[in-house]
Write a structure and sequence with these properties.
This protein has 205 residues and is α/β, with parallel strands linked by helices. The longest helix is centred in the middle third of the chain and has 18 residues. The protein is globular.
């Protein structure tokens, strides 16, 4: 079984350095072009099923990356990390107002919001569990198939951390999950997974 993970294209929030989380942002013209280029890169791959986050930016990415698919399944469980009152704010504003939490988010994600300092925002551990559960259900319902999933940077990094047994504190370590990055996980019959491509970089195993 292969699961192909795709991050959405560039958004207006990416461009303006605003925090997205689960708030709705939209693809920029560059983001649309990235999704169209992705469509060309994966044109020879045949996917049995395509799953997508319900966020606008992922839906728009799917529309351009998989233009002929009419059977895409949209799941709330594939949405980005929920960041409560941070969502929609500018990075610079949050860094000035809440420097410790901002530092934790980018440098010690394992500590982010563990004390509830960002309201009801998810922790990265909660995000990872949500991602693991969502993809485990997809695997259970579609065994021995090639699956595409369009989602978000933090969620995809959290899931890949699980696969490679990387501690959450190192979640943001390279490779960088750029817009429309393509990662591939191969699952064996015993359920174990190995990453064969991470954000467009082939992995030697």
């Amino acid at each position: 079984m292969e699961i192909h993970l795709f991050r959405h294209g560039e958004t207006n929030f990416n461009k303006k350095r605003r925090i997205q989380g689960q708030s709705d942002s939209f693809l920029t013209p560059e983001g649309v072009e990235q999704a169209k280029q992705l469509s060309v890169r994966i044109a020879k791959l045949e996917f049995d099923k395509v799953f997508c986050s319900t966020s606008v930016r992922t839906r728009e990415t799917a529309e351009h990356a998989f233009p002929s698919r009419k059977d895409i399944t949209y799941l709330d469980s594939l949405r980005e990390i929920y960041l409560d009152e941070w969502e929609g704010k500018y990075y610079a504003e949050i860094e000035e107002r809440e420097p410790t939490s901002f530092y934790h988010f980018w440098n010690r994600p394992d500590l982010f919001n563990c004390s509830g300092e960002v309201g009801n925002a998810e922790t990265f551990a909660q995000l990872q569990i949500r991602a693991m559960n969502a993809i485990a259900l997809i695997r259970k319902e579609h065994p021995a198939q090639r699956i595409a999933i369009i989602s978000h940077g933090a969620l995809l990094k959290a899931f890949l951390c699980h696969i490679e047994h990387r501690e959450l504190k190192n979640l943001w370590n390279p490779p960088h999950m750029h817009n429309c990055a393509h990662s591939i996980i191969e699952f064996t019959s015993d359920g174990s997974g190995r990453i064969i491509q991470y954000a467009d970089q082939k992995i030697n195993v």
